[in-house]
Amino acid sequence: MQGGSRLRHVILTTALTLAPAPALAIDEALLPRNLSPWGMFLGADIVVKAVMIGLAMASLVTWTVWLAKTIELRRKSALAFERTRALEGRMKLAEAAERTGDAHDAVAQLIQSCAKEAELSGGIVDDGLQERVALRLERVEAAMSRQIARGTGVLATIGATAPFVGLFGTVWGIMNAFIGISESHTTSLAVVAPGIAEALLATALGLVAAIPAVVIYNHLVRGIANYRALLGDASAQLMLLVSRQRDHGEFRLARAAE
């Protein structure tokens, strides 16, 4: 009897020990083998995939705008600085307008607009001329500032919305995880892990898109502010030039020579 009792005890102990093994083996079999970013993307829900693709495209737009606007700002700022330095000499308005020719850069537009107003005034030099010139220069500055700032607004939009788009992907991934738990009636890691991984990846992509967009936007805003300051310096030099020529009567002499 004792031998039979011991045998039953050994069998029961062995059964209890081996019972969880099949479930564990099943859980390990159900675990996703590829939890790399690309593997998580391929295994994600269609909505989460759409969110990830949108964030990747937003990041591409951010770096494209940065490259294009950086090159544009450097080129235009260098040209504006060069033309402004030329105005600081003993150059006359007609000479400055002749040098610019048909150029379409910002300072050239300021010079041509100033020369056009002086020409339309018909040699009548008074306080009204300076006021009209100042008004023309202000309008050209505003137009050139809008032109150089074109395209930067999308960076502000990406920086403001990308985290929330990534959060939407996170919420959707968590929802899928809970739905999987409900349908399988288990809290197994094999059911929860894929949805959680997708959710975290969407969050990471949202931050990857938003952080550079904000940093690049602030950098471009500072560059645009410096460019506007150069245009302000050029306008000031033109106003000084007009004032000097008015005091010396050079507009009247030029008109008489014609």
Automatic annotation (TrEMBL):
Give compartment(s): Cell inner membrane; Membrane
Q: Which GO terms describe its biological process?
A: protein import
Residue intervals of the MotA/TolQ/ExbB proton channel domain: 120-226
Q: Which domain of life is it from?
A: Bacteria
Q: Where is the signal peptide?
A: 1-25
Transmembrane domains' residue ranges: 41-68, 154-179, 199-220
Its membrane topology is listed as: Multi-pass membrane protein
Q: Which GO terms describe its molecular function?
A: transmembrane transporter activity
Question: Mind listing the UniProt keywords for this protein, alphabetically?
Answer: Cell inner membrane, Cell membrane, Membrane, Protein transport, Signal, Transmembrane, Transmembrane helix, Transport
Q: What does this protein do?
A: Involved in the TonB-dependent energy-dependent transport of various receptor-bound substrates. Protects ExbD from proteolytic degradation and functionally stabilizes TonB.
Task: Give the similarity note.
Answer: Belongs to the exbB/tolQ family.
Name recorded for this polypeptide: Biopolymer transport protein ExbB
